[in-house]
Structures are given as structure tokens and as C-alpha cells.
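**Archive record**
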Amino acid sequence: MRKTDNFNCGSAARKKAKVYLEVDFGTSFSILNNLTREYFASHFELVENPNLANFQVVVGDSAVAQYKDIGDLIWARHYDKFGTKLGEGYNGFIETDVFHNSISNLDQARILVYGFNIQGTVAAVKRLINAQTLYLDMNSYLDAGADVKSLHSDILDNDDKLGLQVMDLLSQERLGSHLQANDEVLRRAVQDVYYDNNVEVAILPVKTLSSTSYGEETQLRTKNLNIDYSAKYKDVFSLYDTPVVMAGGIYSNLDAFADFGGELVEDGHDVWLIEITGGPDEEDNTPYTYEDLEDYYVPALLAGVQHYSGSDTVNYVGHSNGCRSALTSLSKHYSGEDDIGYAFNYSTGTWDSIDLKANPVDKFFGIACPTTLNVLEYSSKQIREINNDGVPKGTAGIEELRAIGKININQKDFLVKLNILAYLKSKSEGNISLNLQEFYKDLYLDNHSSFSGDQNVANKYIFFGGTDNYYSLVNYGGDGVVPIEDLELLNDSFDNCELYKFYDDHTDIRDNKNVKTIIKGELLE
């Protein structure tokens, strides 16, 4: 069954809320007071006069006790709203109320943040920051009326995942006596929780075979992102069952999905960023072709993730060329292939041959994925336009770059030849081979090309297409680079497939919050 959903999305810059902050973790954990103030200051405008604030935020038992009777604190901590008995160290609480400040003549919200133990308070602080658009939007409080306490309060109960994460990272097993020592070790541990610094990063290389079109091996990079949760925590939440592989488009690099990958890691996923193009070795005068990506680069990278992670199955997220090259590669190699490349053996210091296991992808997520590029779009219009010599501008641009000895180019090199540099929206993150740009140029020029993918590439497909051009340029219906018809073709080509459309251009759709939400939800199923 195929499904299509359409969304119109808009965003506006959000002004920082003015917050009057009181923090007091007590004498036992006083080292966390300034750290917590710094953390809030990175998100809000802190003011010294409470009469100038939109919100008063009170953090820590000692500070909260000034506003709430200690008996009420003890009572509130023992049961959640469903009557479940609490008592875990990571139970945290956010309580809100609205009052009228007679001095400033403003309605203000007071937000109390506290917990059973230090872990609960830290977890509640994280929850407040993560959900700041709910807790620090005055209009939402006024709209809530009498229900403000129920709508803008939260209990991190015994099953709260964030609370359990914080408990795992600030546990007695990890910190030992430092947990109660009020020392620098504890401060750094809480800082890592606040700023999401617990993500571990490892660059793990793979290498292609030497039978590429240019007759050489090429070293490619994978980057593994994960959090070193305890074995018990991983077991409780069944973490890391299936690695998530993420690949950007042309002119991107290894970090194209670094931000989104970091979000997935925080959700408990084992993330692998791969560099199909843009790496230091492949862009060092390496004349690879699109067919090299299909037959050598993508298979070696996927086999490398299988080898390093120990998992035969992955979920895949690809943007633009990172989507298309994976689809066409897996259509050829989904049944697996022995000795497809090499992974580095850190024990022996040698390269070991690796195999691509059969049916490597479970769920395939394709964002702004080109297929035929037949339908007119802003990019195709520029490339197809005939110059004064009777030659398409795209063809002339490639010939000029080749004439000056270019083997690998950046995005600016090509856009200058098309005379559309002024419309460059995002900075060029990496180079690609001139041959690859020529492949896509030819695809744009051939407006009768076809595309087919093998159903066995994955078990489920979710595609995302954009319908807004860059800036105020003429909108042809696609994202300025890829026609929406290319995504509709994919939706019609695969069973168990869904297509979502968003009013975004080719660049912005990669970071669209709704796209991320859908992918996160699918990964949990």
C-alpha cells in the first residue's frame, strides 16, 4: 500500500525568553549552581530583576522550598498523577503557576524544578530545556486558563526514559564517591548531561577494491556515534538493535547528518554517518563515476558498517545523491557480495576483506531523492538553457572545467559556470568528482530517461519530497533541484512505501523537523 501526505511548514525566529533564575542545589551539590546558570544562559536571556522577567524559574530543593511548603514537596514526590508510588532517585518534577506581578503589572509564570535526588533535578532541568517551547511561551499559559497546572507540569516517573538516561549517566557505578563529593568530576558529569556531551565518536575507515573505473583503491570514512550506556540500560530499552546509516547528498561530507544523527543517538540509536562523496581520499584527484558509487563505494561502506557494528541489518537515511546512489547500488547488490571491500583491523594494523551480507536494509528513508530528473525544475532549466554557441550551459560548464584540468570540484565551481552563484543557499561542504556532476548534468539533459529500483532493496520505504524553490525563484512544483514527480515515481515503484511532501527546498527539507519526527517514529516501530 502506498501513501502520500502533504504538509505546509513555516518557521520564524523565536525571541529568547526573559528569565529570572534562582538555583540552589544545597550545600551538598553547590558546585552545580553556576553550571546550571550557565546552561540556562545558553538558552534564555537571564535578567537580574524579577520584575523584568517573563518567567521565574526556580531550580533545586533549597530554592523551591522558598515557594512551596516542604510538606507539599514530600507529598508530591511520592505519587504520580495516576497514583503510582514514586521513590526513584531520577524522579523529577516541573510545576508551574501563573501570577500577576503588581509591580511590573505583567502576568508571569513561575516554574519550579526539583527532584528526588540530584539525578531527578538534573533530569527535570533537561526536560524543561527540551520542552522550552511549551514551558516558556506565555501565550500558551494564558490560553490554558484554569488548566495551566495540569498542562504545564510534568512528573518524570519511574518509567521516564530521560530520567533513566540521566540516572544511568550519573550513577554510583560510574562516579563512585564523586557522586556525593561536590567536586569537579561531578560537575563535568552533569555538564556532559546538560550539553549532550556523552556521545562517543569513532572514525572507522573502509577501503574499496582496486577494480574501480580508475583502477585504484579508495579509502572512505564512516563515523560511529553512540552513547556508552550501561549494559542494564541497553537491555531495558533494547537499544542498538539496528544501526542507522546516514548519507548526505553531493557537495556534502561526513557530517551532513551530524545534528540529526546526534538526536537519534540521544534517543538510543547506534548511528553511522557515511561519506559516499566529499572525503579526503576520494576528492584527492580521484575521477570516480556514478557507477563507482553504485558498485564500490556504497557496497563497501555498508559492508563496513555491518563489519564494525556486528549487525547484518541496518536502517538507511539518504539525502539526494545519498538516496539515489544507495537505491541503485542496492538494486544491484541486495543479495550480498563476498570480498566487496576492506575494513581496518586495529589489532593487527592490516586491512581485512569484508563481505556485504544479503538484504542489508530494513527501512529505507529517502529525502529529496532524484530519479529521472525529466520534469522541468529550476536547476534543469539552468542546465538545459542554450548558450550563444548553441550548447547547453551545463555541458559548456563541464567542458570548461575539464579544460582547465579539474578532476574534483566544489559546488561554487559549477554554479559559476551556470551563472547562478547568487542563488547558492548553503555553503559548499565538500567536493565531488567532475564525472559525478557530469552524470547528473546528463540526466537533466535527457528528459526521457527512466528509473527502476528492485523491490528487494528494503522491507519498507519512506520518501520525502519538497515543493518549494529557493528564495523567491519561480516554483516549478519541486524543490528547486529535484521534481516532485521523481518522488512520486519512487512511491509508485515500491510496495510498502509512503511519500510525504513538505513545502521546503532541496536544502531545507533535509533538516525539516517534521521529516525528523516521522523518521524517529518509524525507527521505533
